[in-house]
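Model it.
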Amino acid sequence: MIQLDKTENQEFLEKSIHYLESSGFEEIKADIEGYETPKSYVRKGSGSKITPDIVAIKNGRKYYFDISLKSEKPRLLKSKWLFLDTMSRMNSHHFRIITTKGHYKFTDNMLEDINLTNKTPIKI
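Modeled.
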């Protein structure tokens, strides 16, 4: 999710973290109180920051998670997903998307628009 949506959806972010913890993920980093903040990447042209919503490790592999909720700025979300997907593939990591009821169609349409149809969102 983009920075504008993070303050409104703190509760879903916490719910996602609890789901990941129960699924066996460790060393969870998230941009909420009580967790270490994940590393941010700065876009050269615009100077904007891209930060994964959640970064976790399972079985020695690093996973980047981004939360998909309906957004006012879908273009920013698409570019963030493309960047995280590319970066994760370059470093042999994994990139997953987490979504919830009422946001499935939005998420599927976004993935189709940017040709990431091989990604299956985690539905919580």
